[in-house]
Amino acid sequence: MSTSVPRWTGRVDGPGPEHRRWHNAIDESPGVTGVSLIGFPSDIGVRRNGGRPGAQAGPGAIRAALGSFAIQPEVVVHDAGDVAVAGDDLEAAQDGLAEAVADQLRAGNLPVVLGGGHETAYGSYLGLARSGLLDGRRLGVLNLDAHFDLREADRPSSGTPFRQIAVGEAERGAEFTYAVIGISQPSNTAALFATATELGVRHLHDLDCQERHIEDVLEFVRAFIADVDALYLSIDLDVLPAAQAPGVSAPSTLGVPAAVVIEVCRLVGSDPKLALADITELNSSYDIDNRTARIAARLVHTIVTSAADRPVPEGH
Q1: Burial classification of residue 22, based on how many CB atoms lie within 10 Å of its CB (0-12 exposed, 13-18 middle, 19 or more buried)
Q2: Is 118:149 a contact under the CB 8 Å cutoff?
Q3: For a FRET experiment, which of 31, 54, 274, 311 has its CA 20 to 30 Å from that of 229?
Q4: Is the dihedral of CA 217, 264, 118, 152 positive or negative?
Q5: Is there a contact between 109 and 30 (Cβ–Cβ < 8 Å)?
Q6: Hey, CA dihedral for 246, 188, 264, 37, is it positive or negative?
Q7: Does pTM top 0.85 for this prediction?
Q8: DSSP labels for 59-77?
């Protein structure tokens, strides 16, 4: 299911917790619950969706960028390694990711999945569903993305995961509760908007998510969280402006500024309802000065450090 855990490296300023960085912190506290990273090195879904390949290198690039980030002594972080991805067998890879996510949830950890294309999302959701954490609970799926990713297709891809999640929620007799922040009107057809309306999807356009609108965005998130029992946060890095995140499968024409995205991550990360998060679509082949890898790492860092002091939710 998973390969061996990658070796972490980074800057060393000296011994002691006052010099602690991510590369020191990983698996420093075995057996203690905290955040657990899971890599999903796949761009099978991106290729199926007609995007530019390269996202399979995303987990390694995010870890490399995280390695030298300073981290507080009390934050517990683990690395569960990468899920094995072979050939064009996306479905088997997603099943492997589901098992890895479910294992970490059952162990009491908060899984943060490092993609990979946005096909990561369906495997993440399957793990949440299999863990038993959703039994009798209403799941909210919050996606930061320029796209709805509600496509219908002959084969699953990076454009279909939230349509697949809608089907999964119906199969468990639950309402599909899905919201998207950062929708780009030119990047979504009228058919996709119609599908979103049909499925009751809440969304904010990228034009309404600029820094001057930050309080409106945060209120949108608060209202969404208040309406659910458990929360899954999915971030497609193409939600960011292309200048801030050039290394993605489909660069944004406008995007949501990083400062707004970070504030959403702070809010969501600190909420005890957060059960799972993933960061997707980092394509190192097109990155410039590691900008995208570094902002992806900052988002992971923000979620992890915000979650460190939150109350433990019921059922954990």
Answers
A1: buried
A2: yes
A3: 31
A4: negative
A5: no
A6: negative
A7: yes
A8: HHHHHHHHTT-B--TT--E
